[in-house]
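Project standup — Tuesday

K.O.: blocked on the structure for the chain from last sprint. Re-posting the sequence here as requested.
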Amino acid sequence: MRLAAILVALIALASGQTPPPPAPALRIVSPPDGAYVSGPITLLAAAEPLSIVARIARVSFWADGRQVCTVERPPYECAWDAGDVVVEHLIRAVATLTDGSRLVASARTKKLDHGEIVDVDAVQVTAVITDSRGRFVGGLSRAAFAVYEDDRRQAIGAFTSEDVPLELVAAVDISGSMRLAMEEMKGAVREFLAAVPERHEVTLIGFNDNIIPLTRRSRDPAARLKAVDRLAAWGRTALYDVIIMGLDMLDRRTGRKALVVFTDGEDQGSHATRDDALRRLEESDATLYMIGQGRAGEAADLQQLMERLAKQSGGRAFFPDEIEELRGIFREIIEDLSNQYLLSYVTTNSARDGTWRAITIEVEGGYRIRAREGYRAKTARR
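H.V.: unblocked you, prediction finished:
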């Protein structure tokens, strides 16, 4: 539709005519058509051209035939819970204009293939497979994988090797020690966020001894980049608090989830302890990437902790000597996330006893496997 409108305008200009104004239209920005969704998401619609916005009295959102909310002014968005399993949904947005006419847009989300719905209590694992030369291996089928929990083989339920939409939380250290490197760091973060495809949701957090969400679950590249401008250095470092908060944000939903934490210093201002952060990660199925620069990469105990946390989740830890190296590291993380397999299983051990369960993944072909090492079982509610 947009291409057709552009061609009409070009033809009109070439013939000396005034091109007709574009027809008013409404489109659903989030979730995009064909997306996989679950858990709390933001429904977002946009009107085109911008001049039509002044004529919109209200926008109503509907999900599977039920009204979710009505919004009377931009941004036209509202919160909606898609549920704990990845199933098909029909999303509609209806804009009522001041003259009583309406604009309608719709998007249909996708379900996982037959037999691949994730159970609420399923154990979810993302895995990266590489060959002996470190190259990513794609195209493997479910049959190529075997999953063991405490040495007992588990039946794989959900499985996909497609680039399933990702929810990403990027947490950037803005403590006072970052002041001199802040502009370079912001440039690297902008490049990182710009490289994240629009179908993925990004939350950007700045942290010192406070935790400051700058953008929440955004698919808008411009909004992501604008949020970076708000980063400013001051205060101390609350590393453990931001790890826990980031995981809490991610674990409300099923699907692929990743937390990227950049810091240049040891924890100085957290309310949580190191053990709190470790245990919270054991309960999470998010992949953690840790980037320690400067003092954080030189302190042996902190470096060991960051490596332990990242490896346990199936992620990686990086320790660049110079902040300029961030660009290469961010590219590696994007490539890593783009080559993940997503699978889940319902454990044969149904005890809710809070114990640690070791996970082992095997794959045909003798390839190298990077995945979470295990998880801590939920405890029974009393």
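K.O.: great, moving the ticket to review. Residues 113-120 have pLDDT under 50 and may be disordered. The helical segments are 2-14, 182-195, 221-228, 239-250, 274-282, 295-298, 300-313, 326-337.
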